Amino acid sequence: MAVFTPLSDAQVAEFLKRFDVGNLVSLEGVAGGTENTTFFVTTDRRELVLTLFEQGEHEELPFFVDLLDYLDEHRLPVPGPVHDREGIALHSLAGKPSLLFPRLPGRHPMTPNLAQCRALGEALGRMHVVSQHFPGHRPNPRDLSWLVAMHHRVLGYLSPDDQALMKDEVEIYQGVFGAAPALPHGALHGDLFRDNTLFEGDRLGGIIDFYNGCTGDLLFDLAVVINDWASGPDGRLDRERHDAIVQAYQARRPLTSAEREVWPTMLRMTALRYWLSRLLVVYVDPPAHDLTPHDPAQFHTILTARLKHGALPLPEASDT
Question: Which residue numbers delimit the Aminoglycoside phosphotransferase domain (predicted)?
Answer without folding.
Answer: 27-255
